[in-house]
Amino acid sequence: MPSPKFWPGGFLPHSNCYKVQLENSFSLWSFTVCFSGHPPNGSLWCQAGMGCLGTQRAPRAFLLLPLLLYVARRSNLTQLQSGSKKKKVTKAERLKLLQEEEERRLKEEEEARLKYEKEEMERLEIQRIEKEKWNRLEAKDLERRNEELEELYLLERCFPEAEKLKQETRMLSQWKHYIQCDGSPDPSIAQEMNTFISLWKEKTNETFEEVIEKSKVVLNLIEKLKFILLETPPCDLQDKNIIQYQESILQLQELLHLKFNVATEILLRQASTLADLDSGNMEKVIKDENVTLYVWANLKKNPRHRSVRFSETQIGFEIPRILATSDIAVRLLHTHYDHVSALHPVSTPSKEHTSSVTELVKDDVENVEKAISKEVEEESKQQEKQSHLIQEEKLKVEEEQDDIEVKMSSAEEESEVIKCELEMKVLSETVSAAQLLLVENSSEKPDFFENDMVDLFQFTTLGGVYHLDILELPPQCKPVKGWMIVEILKEGLQKYTYPPETTEDFETENAFPPIEVTLEVHENVIFFENPMVVRWDAEGKHWRTDGISNVSYKPNERLVTFSLDTFGPVTLIQDAHINMPYQSWELRPLDVNKVLLTVTTVFTEIQIQIKENLCMLSSVKLKDKKHISILEGTWMTPIPFIIALKEAGLNIFPTRYSHFYVVINNKARMNLSKFNVVPLVEVKAYRQMALLSSTFAFGWSKWNLLCNSTKVVFKVREHLPEECTENPNWALLMFSGDRAQRLKIKEESEAFSEALKEETEFHSTLYHMVRDFASKEAMEKVRSSNCQFVNSVCHMLLSTRLLSYS
């Protein structure tokens, strides 16, 4: 309510009026008449808005208006108060009101109770109907389970068939190697490998170029031996064979490095003849696809010449004064492979599982052989009896003999079929064991590593090894009367110890400062973060991070600079799980027996094409920019392809220890339980996804993180060439290994629910689940898929473990 205020100009004496501002609303206030003409103290005045009055004086009648309104209001209030005082509520009336209130409350409670009971009955009825429907669906699923599993078994025969083709390919390659007679040994035969190593040891005075050429054969043998260990099914690998192959690999690696040292010594003997005219020192660079050699020989011993940079490169050293005045040579041998780190252990299945499989197969084979021999004996006895009883009827006997021969041949054919079935059963067991081994998680973390030691289960070496050595300069060749005379040291090439073991003879403490080294990162390697530099500890046989300081990396020039306390092998490492967990993934058909696998990580998007038994890197995107890799466009079999991607820094392949270093889904962590349960759900899902991959697209779902650890959730849709890929119609499937169902929720839903989609049913396999909403053409394509293609897709899914590491 607005308070009254006087109009400017104030009160005029002896006029009995005031100048006031009027508004459209009036307020009542206490008013006391004052015959002096002045307003009383503390009285309230109304404001009446009359713009036309302006500052004119209000008439006396107008001044009485507030008083009249006030008196009228007071009289009304007095009448109301007197009326309320007269109508007092009696005790009976008060009790009646309370009774009515109680009745109303009871009525409301009764209505609420009835409403709740009705809703509860409706809810229970809905639950009963849903449970009955669920039980009917479960009963129907159980009724047709055997039939569906038998059909799935026939479809999954493609896996042993693909393994049989692999065995035939390996045997064919051995035969081709045998008929080539190119002098290279068969790496799987120990006698041939020992002969090859012994003959090469005896060969001396090989130049560096000759050793490089020979190294191509050696590296090929090492690669073949590693592939044998990786490609041969674990059940077929015996312990003695594993030891034999690993020993051959180590012998070849040691011999190859020894040959490089001998060739370096021969090269340094000629340092004086190869000296540079400007500096007077010798500098030599030899490049090859597998090895790069940088050698600098200090012939002038100029104390001012302390910066060594190899021509046309930025690779070099900053040597201290003591080295600049010594008879030394500095060698940088960059091998594009890693023969320094220890060999990775070969995964093999448990002996109990292997023995059970072999005993089962042996029993089946023996039973079949006994049955076949029994049938043959009975047929032969019957033939003898009939030939003795009826001799005169020769025609009949001949006809019966023909019938018996036909029966015997049919029995032999049946035995061949049974043997073939047994062989496929053995291969199926072998393939299943190998696939389970790919997703097996170790229950124990690797041995404890010290603070400065590098855990090669967590990190990986990239770009090869840089062998940094300070060598004592050998005696130089001297021309004498047309001859070149050279002193050959019995101990061979010697390393220069820096810093020396005793430094008492030297005055200053900083006489042996760290040596600054600048190296070039291999062009085919991708580092998503700045690389870490580590050195090799020859005594402890492991990589270490201490003894290295002032590390800096220039990504554009691909140069890494650091200071090294003492020389030796160094390498660059990166977190092996830097691209894990994946952000999303998709498996999409491209053509007949050809798919595209896309894996998106924090740093990159990798696309892999798969066809038949081959894989190819389709593209690599780094922060929305395409990266050109040497692997793009090159088709390889799955295992060599996986190794090539790892060596290029594109590691999306977890190991059995990866769950200790990556925060992952429960599908992988379930193996950490007391009983080390094998994730059969994951393996079955990958196998059946591979069977359907020629026609159906699969994708990542956020609900896979929220479902139970014994189940997986992913998106699936039939791939139609003419459909729009911007808004594909995905279906959400949940699979527990023994049951597949289509979920009611969508990817965009707010909460996870295992509720079944309307008008859908349970199935025992993914194949039968998608058949409910797929076209006949799609299922026909699935049944006619190439076995090698299905096996390759399955191997890639098992190697990436998309359902656990996304």
Strand line-up across the major sheet: 21-20-19-18-17-22-23-24-25
Report the strand count: 25
- What is the assembly state of the chains in this entry? single chain
Taken as a percent bin, the fraction of beta residues is: 15-25%
| Overall helicity | 40-55%
**Count, helices:** 17
Average pLDDT value?
80
Q: Which structural class should the secondary elements be placed in?
A: alpha+beta
Shape: flat
Please give the alpha-carbon distance between the first and last residues.
Answer: 68 Å
Which tags fit this structure?
single chain; 806 residues; alpha+beta; seven-stranded antiparallel beta sheet; disordered N terminus
Structural notes for this entry:
The protein has 806 residues and is α+β, with helices and mostly antiparallel strands. The chain is 40% helix and 18% strand. The chain contains 17 helices and 25 strands. The chain has a nine-stranded antiparallel sheet with strand order 21-20-19-18-17-22-23-24-25. The protein has a seven-stranded antiparallel sheet with strand order 3-4-7-8-16-12-13, with no helix packed on it. The longest helix has 53 residues, at 91-143. It is flat and about 140 Å long. It starts with 5 loop residues before the first strand and ends in a 6-residue tail after the last helix. Residues 1-69, 352-362 and 668-678 have low confidence and may be disordered.
